[in-house]
Amino acid sequence: MLRVMSVFGTRPEAIKMAPLVRELASRPEIESLCCVTAQHRQMLDSVLEVFDLKPDWDLDIMTPRQTLSTITSKCLLGMDEAIDALKPDMILVHGDTSTTFAGALSAFYHQVPVGHVEAGLRTYDKYSPFPEEMNRKLVTSIADLYFCPTVNNKKNLLKEAVGESGIFITGNTVIDALKTTVREGYRFSTEELNHLPYGKKKLLLVTCHRRENYGEPMRNIMLALRQIAEENEDVELVYPVHLSPVVRQAVDEYLRGAPRTHLIDPLPADEMHNLMARSYLVLTDSGGLQEEAPALGKPVLVLRRETERPEAVAAGTVKLAGVDREKIVQMAEELIRSKEAYARMARAVNPYGDGFACRRIADAILWYFGKSQTRPEDYR
């Protein structure tokens, strides 16, 4: 049996890798192994619980006030032991985190082939998103197989002279995850969410946590959110606040006390997905929500200056609102007040997949190792 080890350490990675770990485990030719770094301990564990995953190896690296350097060095040292003990034939990493980069680098040091899930995303600004853009590019230099969500991601890799034979267009695994988490009649464990006026008011779901938004950009975003709440009585804001002390300080200083604004702790993956499904609009600086919300028919305003997911902008499911207070307010209020503007975004076709990305990735791995004679067809 092929020993395929999936490595991840943060909540977004876990949400997108969990269905893949399960799909690999369903294949008789594959022994599916799971190694977590716990770069984000509490938020990672909530996803493992939702998907009923038990890691084969847990580096448990998280420390208070950790830095990019401590995360990367601890991952590298921990991965040495994990690879020596589990002896994988291939290591899968996801996306763009410090865990992703360190996992790929450690695999390279041990001469283990690397598969990069969600490969080929680019902004071509190495400091934005930071450090994710460089993590992606560095993993591209190491990887052997590239699992791209979209055609555009493949084009980015081809421009960088990556060999086409190792590139597969699969769709995004987050769509696979949504198929298992969003349910009719779902009841939230966060009791406050069970009593929101769904259908009576327009629920705006907010997340904001990225490093490049620290400081003045985050202040502008928080003040814009407050203004939106103050000026629109038919709106309720729900903001699961990231655990980062920097984010929490900004929320407390500029947003707390705004009318009809619910500041809650981060949610488990299934709660977040079901809350998103009942929302009217999503405002976020997250990458994953730009893919998840459109799959549920929810428009997204991106609270960043750029996005590595231009397919969603081109499709019309996502718009860049930036970090200017007036622009964020103007774009949000247009969608709140204009049925036509809202319908154009809500009805746009999501470009990120059909829910079978994990199947395509597993098929590609079997083909790569000669266990299948048929190269899987790309998602179109």
From TrEMBL:
EC class (word):
isomerase
For the UDP-N-acetylglucosamine 2-epimerase domain, which residue ranges apply? 23-365
A GO MF annotation of the entry reads:
UDP-N-acetylglucosamine 2-epimerase activity
Q: Which UniProt keywords apply?
A: Isomerase
Q: What EC number(s) does its UniProt record assign?
A: 5.1.3.14
Q: Which InterPro entries match?
A: UDP_GlcNAc_Epimerase_2_dom, WecB-like
Question: Any keyword DNA-binding?
Answer: no
**Which CDD domains does the record cross-reference, listed alphabetically?**
GTB_UDP-GlcNAc_2-Epimerase (cd03786)
Q: What Gene3D superfamilies does the database record attribute to this sequence? A: Glycogen Phosphorylase B (3.40.50.2000)
* UniProt xrefs under Pfam families: Epimerase_2 (PF02350)
The record's similarity note reads: Belongs to the UDP-N-acetylglucosamine 2-epimerase family.
Q: What protein name is recorded for this chain?
A: UDP-N-acetylglucosamine 2-epimerase (non-hydrolyzing)
Q: Which organism is it from?
A: Oscillibacter hominis
